[in-house]
């Protein structure tokens, strides 16, 4: 591991003053960044530890729930208000990583975690995300874990987070601080598709810091479910995961939110499928129909083509769970 | 003194906990990497990034100048390993898989090409990142299925035939199928590690992860041309080794070379990624089985073909087809085993070697046959029960497999099983049951024990044997406690050091039978010595402390050597197991959950019930990993593993494992040794993968013949 500097500013301004210098990286829980440093995927000259900043609070606001960027994944998943108002988020968090990791991982770090693509991790392999212009190892290689939506010839990596799938479904807002002040952007527009610039995972500028996320109040608490399909029962990244949230009145769906993980470079919202459910009865048939709609534009790359079948099956299952049909 | 042993040991005290359990859970047990000899330095290996070819140049300048770096060793500057050098102008075979830093040849991706030694681990790691090699690249092959036609029969193990060849073809009921066991990598919790130090120019000490300190001592003495007694090997605790530490590997030799260069102790701990290329693995194996049977379920013929991978520089064989020769009474059996040499590191034994792979195919195929016969799979096995060894015709020293079937069936609730697949659903999940069995030779080899009784009534036992986890020390203490009639707390078992009396390498499920016999006999000899002191009429188990004091003796000691392999001429000796599994399968997503497991071992008399149970549970979990998730994946374009880390290479976690019932027939084998104990380690895993696959089929109607059984293969 390369030698590096380590600083721990006491204030947000102190952080903003240093983070836009080349070779500088923020460190929060370190559960992703340190692994990447050990593998030589990233080699910062300076780490800016942000753990001194007061960004751990979870508090109700007038319009929703604010969660600080440094709130730990474990703390958020066990928070009483989260459990009560946004059980979907708690379920997604608990489906991620292991208790030890969740005890270190932060909300901001979780959003910013990098793909787990094996070609990205192995510095001897081609990877446009790690080393632009070297090619994509996965596209004709081992791509069982890879994207079926929104990929580009440059990159078929997926964003590996579970938490982000729930936040995308729940219409969260990301709050970002920069030199010029605060900026808010919809969670669904925080991460980006690879296109011609797979080295960029999201729209956060180099000189910006995530300070928190906000989830608007909703009526989904009663009928939410996070279903994660993986190769073992715990401590594995999703083959496919689905966050499903329904607002059901007298058996009729008033509103719906659906997002998928493990299928794209960003948490994948299923807007068409959501729309198709509104005004419909909460039945297996309608769920299966929505699942089919969600698959428009999906493309398999060989090893991962099973996801074309697994994804709709998982959507329908998640909806059934959310609606209390199983 | 060698002694014949023929008495049978009565049942020993039950339920004692592992004697080193407390040390292990409190962190007080010291593993090889945890020693800190003065002046300790740290080594990090640099691996080849090509798969086949040669090194044309290697730039070590930046690494050599990096802070804290003491040496960068490559084939260009490594001191010669005397045991690797040609003798009389002829090259000698390598002792440690291949000759590390010997020349510019690259045999596989990840092969060590340099060792960077620094004053701290981090600085060595950074230094290693600066070593840059240029290569001449040759075309490589790493893919077995595409290269199966290039296979060759290994010497002495190629083919077997009894009765008529391919007799299955004429049978009214038959199955013919292909099965794949992928590469499964050794991933014990403790990484392989060595600390090497030259105490003098001709004296070497190592703290090393090994399953046999004596074997390592011999290998190292041979390689560095040292008198055996000048090599000290310490391996007091081993954090799991399931075959990976049965032989000497290049990283061990590299660390010793490094210590020679820096003239200081060098610690070398493999990274998790290194584990995939450095210490062997269960080889990728293709198999084809064909079985024929009569309408009433009598097997008429088995044809079993296998092709397993090996490296380009060594032939590793493990006899996967052997299981078809012995497991069932079938008059006509022919088998064929080929190796396919690939540009990968050499495989090695992994728990239940050969048999685990072979039984996945055989026991899956038998299950398939049971469905075409519409016969209960247990009943099918009983109809083909081998009463004597089908291969040699010899009687078994003991075999209670039929009782094991019954025990397991009762425990799992086999009567709930429906013969019709995919016919039981509960809470949205399909429910199914499966079973499969395994066998493994019951071996025993020679061992020596020093037993010393002290005036405080404490007994010290010494043996060089390793304990890789099964609880060897615990079992030995229990045997001695029973024999001497003193409480276990009074007995200390010292092991894992080459200075101690000779013991075989821990492997092949033979330790209890081998070292246990020596302990048993040493106790008998020690008691006899006491008898001589007391004179006629004394009790068999006197107050030892009192006798010593009366005779003014500080201690009484014996060194007893026992032989191995007795009974082999007249009897076929095996341990047997059967695994019963209940699974839940999600019909929509293909997720498989193991709901219940019952494993039954027929491994003779059980000496240490608690550690025996742990062994069976551990074996079953290893089998579940093999069945559902373990697979080392190579990108054949590059010849590199793509999932060589614990996030991507899955081993079972707690959530994957239900309650596992470990059951024992617990009837002594009258022949193998005085305790009546047979091996247990391998059979705990052998057959498990097929049992899971068979249960998945019963639940879902999906027959998965290529492991692991991941959701994508099961999903509708
Ligand atoms: C073995 C393993 C298994 C895992 N399994 C799962 C899983 O199943 N599901 C899942 O969702 N996750 C999983 N994870 C990933 C885990 O959730 C992330 O590692 C974790 O959330 C990262 O948070 P952190 O605070 O440790 O981030 P760090 O490692 O500290 O940082 C990660 C990145 O975020 C940046 N960053 C951190 N905070 C901020 C901020 N406030 N503003 C701007 N940038 C910031 C850092 O610069 C860095 O680039 C797994 C991780 C491991 C190691």
Task: Annotate the secondary structure layout.
The complex is a heterodimer of chains A (326) and B (716).
Chain A: E1 5-7, H1 12-19, E2 24-27, H2 33-38, E3 46-49, E4 58-60, E5 64-68, H3 73-78, H4 80-85, H5 87-94, H6 99-102, H7 107-112, H8 118-121, H9 163-169, E6 173-178, E7 181-186, E8 209-216, E9 223-229, E10 240-249, E11 252-261, E12 268-269, H10 271-277, H11 284-294, H12 307-322
Parallel strand pairs in A: 1-3, 2-3
Antiparallel strand pairs in A: 4-5, 5-8, 6-7, 6-8, 9-10, 10-11, 11-12
Helix pairs in contact in A: 5-9, 10-11, 11-12
Chain B: E1 2-3, H1 21-26, E2 41-47, E3 53-59, H2 61-65, E4 69-74, E5 105-106, E6 112-118, H3 121-130, E7 132-137, E8 159-162, E9 173-181, E10 184-185, E11 193-200, E12 203-208, H4 213-223, E13 231-234, H5 250-262, E14 266-269, H6 272-278, E15 281-282, E16 285-293, E17 299-311, H7 322-326, E18 333-342, H8 355-373, H9 377-383, H10 401-412, E19 425-426, E20 429-441, E21 447-454, E22 459-462, H11 472-484, E23 491-494, H12 511-534, H13 544-550, E24 555-562, E25 574-585, E26 592-602, H14 609-628, E27 634-635, E28 640-641, E29 660-664, H15 688-700, H16 711-714
Helix pairs in contact in B: 8-15, 11-12, 14-15
The structure holds flavin-adenine dinucleotide (FAD).
